[in-house]
Amino acid sequence: RGWRWILGTLFILGSWLIGGTLLGLAFLPYTGINPLALATDGDIFQGMPGWGFLFFALITFVPLFISTLGAYRFILGIKLKYLFSTANRFRWWRVALGFWVWVILMGGPVIVAVASNLDAYRFNFNPATFLPYLLVALVLFPIQTTAEELFFRGWIIQWAAKRNTNILWLSSLSAVLFTLPHMVNPEAAGDFWGAFVGYFTVGFALGWVTVRDRSLEVAIGAHLSNNLFAALVVGYEGGALPAEALFVTESLEWGNSNVAILLIVPLFILGTRFGRPKVTKSVSSESELTATG
């Protein structure tokens, strides 16, 4: 039944690329775009407020979210609950665990860095721009990050695990595929390999906990906290996200960032072991999944 996975993957990618583009264009007039800026500069993003840019970017992930669910249920013919977890039931408190462990480990040192070097950061709070940006972030980031987890950690890992269940292999494969689309982000332009290592390491950590737990619980929470923190608390100029965070620095320095990530990832993996599913009935093969669907 490998053809179903191939067909499903093509359907998901096509829906994401084509559907996401069309959806973004459909909502473009509602992003607060300035037609005069568009006419004079020729750059639609220069004519958008921060919240509009964020809305335009994140709304394109809705087709990825929907198509991954649709392909799993109707092309593979498997119940959706097994995309989220193949071991026991999905538990929201472990999503919260992933969220808070990640934000403490990753965000804590950043807050310390800001407090100890205020000259390198600009306090950026403006209620008129931040509040609508906050609203868009809280509504759409959960969809964007969950969509990526469903595809890169759910769909990809389950497909690859049909032939090889080694946690190192599955985590690495998922991390590479997760990294590739992120390499078109503006912050990757100045330091390709630094950006590759950064995205790969994060993807590897999220893949590892997914394979370990046979569940997306922790990965969904951690991914959401990562993106919300970068968008709302401490951000940087010239990145994929508008510089509308409370504190903003000039640019992302991949070298120092990657050293911190490499040190923190083992702690994240250890810190999220609590409450791992005690697998009494693990559903791992495609025949078992389909039989229960």
Structure overview:
By secondary structure, the protein is mainly α. The chain contains twelve helices and three strands. The chain has helices spanning 2-27, 35-41, 50-59, 62-75, 81-84, 92-116, 127-160, 167-182, 192-213, 217-232, 254-271, 286-292; strands spanning 122-123, 234-236, 247-249. It is globular, with a radius of gyration of 20 Å. It starts with a helix and ends with a helix. Residues 281-288 have low confidence and may be disordered.
**Which runs of at least 5 residues are low in confidence (pLDDT < 50)?**
281-288
Oligomer: single chain
The fraction of residues in strands falls at under 5%
* Total DSSP helices: 12
Distance, first to last CA:
15 Å
Radius of gyration computed on alpha carbons: 20 Å
Give the ordered list of helices and strands.
HHHHHHEHHHHEEHH
Whole-number mean pLDDT: 89
Which structural class fits the helix and strand makeup? mainly alpha
- Number of distinct beta strands: 3
How many strands, which pairing sense, and closed or not: the largest β-sheet? Answer: 3 strands, mixed
Gross morphology = globular
Which strand order spans the largest sheet, edge to edge or round the barrel?
A: 1-3-2
Helix content: 55-70%
Write the layout of secondary structure elements.
Elements: H1 2-27, H2 35-41, H3 50-59, H4 62-75, H5 81-84, H6 92-116, E1 122-123, H7 127-160, H8 167-182, H9 192-213, H10 217-232, E2 234-236, E3 247-249, H11 254-271, H12 286-292
Parallel strand pairs: 2-3
Antiparallel strand pairs: 1-3
